[in-house]
Structures are given as structure tokens and as C-alpha cells.
Amino acid sequence: MTHVLDPGALSDDTRVLTAPTPPYDDVTRSDSAFRTFLHGLPGVDQVGAESRVAVLGTRSIKTTSKAWAIDTAISMVDLTTLEGADTPGKVRSLAAKARRPDPSDPACPHVAAVCVYGDLAGVAREALGDSGIHVAAVATAFPSGRASRAVKIADVEDAVANGADEIDMVIDRGAFLTGRYLDVYEEIVAVKEACGDAHLKVILETGELVTLDNVRRASWIAMLAGGDFIKTSTGKVNPAATLPVSLVMLEAVRDFRAATGRQVGFKPAGGIRTTKDAIKHLVLINETVGPDWLDPAWFRFGASSLLNDLLQQRQKLRTGHYSGPDYVSVD
Amino acid sequence: MTSLFEYAPAPESRSIVDIAPSYGLFIDGEFVDGTGEPFKTVNPATEEVLSQVSAGSDADVDRAVAAARRAFTRVWGPMRPADRGKYLFRIARLMQERSREFAVLESLDNGKPIRESRDVDVPLAAAHFFYHAGWADKLDHAGLGPGPRPLGVAGQVIPWNFPLLMLAWKVAPALATGNTVVLKPAETTPLTALLFAEICQQADLPPGVVNIVTGAGDTGRAVVEHDDVDKVAFTGSTEVGRSIARAVAGTRKSLTLELGGKAANIVFDDAPIDQAVEGIVQGIFFNQGHVCCAGSRLLVQESVHDEVIASLQRRISTLRVGDPLDKNTDLGAINSAEQLARIHELSDIGEAEGAQRWQPDCVLPDRGFWFPPTIFTQVSPAHRIARDEVFGPVLSVLTFRTPDEAVAKANNTTYGLSAGIWSEKGSRILKIANQLRAGVVWANTFNKFDPTSPFGGYKQSGYGREGGRHGLTGYLKGATHS
């Protein structure tokens, strides 16, 4: 391992990399420079972050604003199935639901994307046709990311060839936690290149990074490496998308745009199951990064059961009474 | 900001609480008409008259003190301490049960946002009663010397910024230690104290243990100067505090004062900036800045000044100013026309002295008393807005270069109630905290209160402590603190 004070650190300066966006084009010149930069980001006080989201959690969203929030949230869902038991039939049924979440109401918006494993991206592509709904595929030895770089790149190329418009990759948490930040960065750069025109979402797996300081550093690595979105979790590790984590990642995309002019999207995934959770996230966006991110192009929910709760709440607002789980389709 | 995600109004229902057209004084367990000139209390957010309230004359105060004396000698003083504790637990539970009424009434009468009255004022007030209820039968073991005895009748005068919470800070320790009280709420915010009087009836508190005499300065003076009062406790302005100290000097009365402040909130360059900004906002805009321990002087290290101010301005632009009863309101109304005039006066002086005023675009309601969140940059320690207590949503920003300079500037005030330190370095926090002449020092947070934690000031911020074990000593004879 190298350190800023390590005299051997400078000899490490032999890597050839795509430089990040100015004004950060020199921070990845060496392991030690990158470490110094990341550790120089302002710290995050966990208690303060928790109390901030607790206050925002008391916002009372009613009537017209609730209706707007529910429709907006539906249009931001990446409807997800990531099971070993996934089949083409399951993916097709999910695609049908993505196109028309509430069969009883044509005014209900469609979701943003369907998210599947790479081998099923083709099935999803075909089922979604020209609906405008994107196909997102997880790749890079999802969810653990424990495979060689070559395997990960092949995984990405396969998913893109199958028709994925969006690639959800996982970072190498092992490398991150041992302090090999430049390795994490390089891998994201390589994956981004393999994506071609497909959008890249970078999953930090914040449940394994644990501290909010780590979440902020990993967010910056992903943004500097060219990620189009940063995403909290795979959904396979608990805790997943908690509000304090979302707050810190939103602050990161806000600060990154202020410094570089490039806007990066944000996707919380895992653990967001209710309309209330979704609305808390929309409030968080509205009051921390502002309305520029209140758009499916810049914000997504990675979720499966969330959609049905949104639909039930939507029906409640429309009809004035609660229905039951049998009034929305099972996935 | 665009209007993409507008929050529809989400007002708390006003009908939760019944406000009588007029109120009397609460003396000896009964509501009785006062003999002074009655006055009106208004909703500062709309200027609507809420109710007419009796003013206590000297004769009324005399009756209240006599009732308190009787209750002290015959009932409350001799009562088994565990039984006193039971009454206090009962009061605490009733306050929780009726918390929505208290919250709505507090917001109506004071102008503070319902989010704060609901989530801070009322729960903390109940917590003070629970905490002190627990002490009632354990005073022998509080480490305050052997067999501490109550003082007798306490005359208490409280301010308008936290009407119910300040009542709890005063009444709970007094009763737990075996004293009886005559309390004078602020003229502009008497209603929650009168609802508390109803709670005393509901709890079957023996008559005369708690007496509430509403009125203005004259009524307060009558309480403080009454010959049969053993203890005077006051929270309010330094000016009034000084006159009380003069009136009490040379008498047998014991005195605690909790007065003004001009707290420094110190942000070092290694601070968690986003949370520091949040803490600055909480420090100065909580309760419209009507807080004696408000972080009204921001001391920010020069190397991060621009970053912090830019962040702060962005954050302040998201504050929601308006209807105090709306659950999404962050900043409510200024409590009175008089206070609003003072805030205007000091802000204008700030500008005239050369400081730079910044306010976000925000639409203020047409009626009522309102002042937008305000920051002054380029403030020098010699400016009046860096020295005088504004008691409003006005922040003065000063800078420093070294820790020594931060401490020197923070302590350069006639007050000494509270201070804040923001840094990720624990050793620095401990070192600076030891050098600050302030009763409360918060680290990486601000305006956090707890009944277990003593609160009080240095210098012109007053003397004595409220809350915690230390707070008990102010109501006990021969209590020696160890």
C-alpha cells in the first residue's frame, strides 16, 4: 500500500489512464495523489446526517402533491427481478407490467426501465419493443463482483450485445476497503468503455462500505471514472438504501456538478418498499439537490415490490378508498 | 427554485384545542378574575385576537402567594416525597396525552412552527416533569448534602420564546424539591400556561401548589418583590434580570437568572461541512432565532469561509417560511410587533455599520409579524450586530485564522450562555471547549436540550443552573454541590 508520505509512492506513477473531468484531471495521477484527494473530502457526521433526514422525513405530502409524487415515482422505477429462478416468461410478464402498471387506468405512467440479469436482456428488449422503456442489465459478476477484470468486461459486453441500454455494475469493494482506490477507479473506467453507448450505473454496495465517509469517497471515485449514475446497493446486502446514505450520495452528485458542470444521476435500490419511503426520497432530492434531479433521466428507484404499493396508493387517491393486493397484479 | 414539487398545505387542525373567549387567574386551584386591567393575546401570524386574559394586580399576587404559602406549610411541604413524585408523573402523562392541544395552542399564541412545538417544546416539557418526578423521593441521594430542605414559595417569571417549556423548567424542579410556586407567564404568550393550570386540576394537584398569575411587567414585579416569596427564578432579558437582581439584593430570597446570549458557533476547516451548515441553520433559525442560546455569531475559519457561506445560502433558500400551523413550515412568525421592530432596528444598524446583508427570495404573508432569514457577512467584532442580542433570525458571520483567535473572538462578549464547535478532530473539540466561557458547549450539533443536562450561563447570561442534578440546588436549602 502507498501513502502520501511514503517515499516510494511517486514511483507508482506509471499507469496510463483516462483522466477525469477537469478540475480533477490530475487527482488520479498516482495512488497516493488519489488517496490524498479522497481523504481530503469533507467528513460526514453520521449523527448530523441522520437528524437531517429525520426532519425531512416529517414533511407532510398531501392531496395534489401526493398525486404528483406517486406518478413521478412510478415513472422513476427500475422494475427489477434478479433471481436465480428468473425465466423468459417471468421477464416478459414484468415487461408487460412495466408498460402498463395499472391495467385499469391508461393514464398511469409507465416505469423507467426493467432491470434483469444480462442473459435475459434480450428477452426484455424484445418484450419492451418501442415502448421507450429502457432495459437495464446487472453485470460485472453481480452481486459480489468477485471475478477477474476480463470476466467482468465480457459480462458487460454480453449484456450490451443482448440489447441492454443501461449497465448496472458493482465496484470492487475488496479493493476499496484495502485502500486500492485507483484499482476501483480503473475498473470503472474500463467498464464504462465496454458499455459503449449504454449508460453506466455504478453500484457502491453501501451496506458493505458501512461508513458515510466511505460512501462519499466511493461516490467520488465512481463519478470521476465516468459513471452516469451512482447507485446505492445490489439489493442482496442489508442495509441497502437508507436515507442517510441517499443524503450523502445526493450531496456528492450536487457537489460534483457544481465543480465540473457534469450532472450524474442517483439510484437508491433495495429496501424501498412503500410509497412513504419513495416520497421521502423525492423530498430529499427536492430539498438537497433541487428539482433538476426530479426526472427519470437523473433519478431512479431500484425496486420490485414498491411499484404495487405506489399503485395501491394511487388507486386510493383516485377512488377515495383502499383496495387490496388483489387489485394490482402479482409480478 | 422551480415549482416542480410544490407541497400542498398540510395544516394541523386548529379545532383540536378550545380557546375560551376570556381567562382568569389560577389561584388556589381555581380560576378567578383578576382585578387588574385585562389584556388581549394575539396570534402573531395573523394578528387575530385569540383571547382576553386577566392581569394580576398586587392584591391578586398577594392572594396567590398566600395560597402558595398555605399549600407549602400544610400539604406539599409535609407530603411524603414519593407522593409528590406521583403527582409529577401524573402531570407528565397528562401533558403527553394532551400534547396535540399543547402544540397547536403554543404555535397559535407564539407563532412557532407546529413541527417544533410538536417535536421539541411539548415532548421536552413532559420529559422535564418525568425527569424531576423521579428525583422527588431521591433527594437525599442526589449528592447535595444531608437532608436537603425546600425553600418555600418560589416566584417565577418566564419569557415568551418557549412558554410551556420554560414553565416546565421552572415548575418541575420546584415541585419535585417540595416548593410551591407562583408563576407569571409572558404577556404575549399566556395560553399554554393556562392550559397547564387545567392539567393541574385534572391531576388533582392540591390547591395552591401551582398558582398562575398572568399579566405584564407590573405583575411580574409584584411576584418578584413580594415579601413572602423565598425564591425568585427568572428567564428573560438581561435588562430585566438586572433590575430583578437589584430588587432582590439584601433580602433573604435566593435567586437564579437565565438571561441573554450571543453564542459563537465555531466552524473549523476540518468540519463536516454539510452537517455544519445544517447546525448553523438549526442554531440561528430554530424558533425564529428567539432563543437565548442561539448561535447568532458564526465564527468560520477563513480557509473555508466562501464554501460555507455558499452552502449556507443554498440551504437557507430552501427554508419554508409561513403558516406556523402548516406541518411543513420551518420558520414561523416573529412573536410581537415590538420584537419585530427591534429586529428591524438592529438589522438596519448592521447595514449602516457596513456589514453585508443577504436574504433569500421569500414571500412573507401580508398580515402578522414576519422577518425573513437573514445573514450578515463582513461583520467585525466591533459591530453592534456582533455584540447585541438580536433575538431573531439574523446571523452575523465573522472569520478567524487560528484556534486561538477563534477562542478570543468567541469569548469577546458580555454574555456566556452557549457555544458550538464544528470539527472532525476530537482532541481539538475538547481543548477548545475547555477554553470557552460558556455554560453549554455543543460539539458537532447545536440547540440540543435534555432535562438531565444542566443549562445556564457565565457573565451577563445569568447565574444558577436549570436541569440535571445541578438544577435541584436552586430550590433546596443547604444544598452543597459536590
Automatic annotation (TrEMBL), chain B:
GO terms for molecular function: aldehyde dehydrogenase (NAD+) activity. Gene3D superfamilies: Aldehyde Dehydrogenase, Chain A, domain 1, Aldehyde Dehydrogenase, Chain A, domain 2. Keywords: Oxidoreductase. It comes from uncultured Thermomicrobiales bacterium. It comes from the Bacteria. PANTHER family: ALDEHYDE DEHYDROGENASE-RELATED. Pfam families: Aldedh. Residues 31-477 form the Aldehyde dehydrogenase domain. The active site is at 258. This is Aldehyde dehydrogenase. Belongs to the aldehyde dehydrogenase family. It is an enzyme of class 1 (oxidoreductase). The keyword Oxidoreductase applies. The keyword Oxidoreductase applies. Its EC number is 1.2.1.3. InterPro entries: Ald_DH/histidinol_DH (IPR016161), Ald_DH_C (IPR016163), Ald_DH_CS_GLU (IPR029510), Ald_DH_N (IPR016162), Aldehyde_DH_dom (IPR015590).
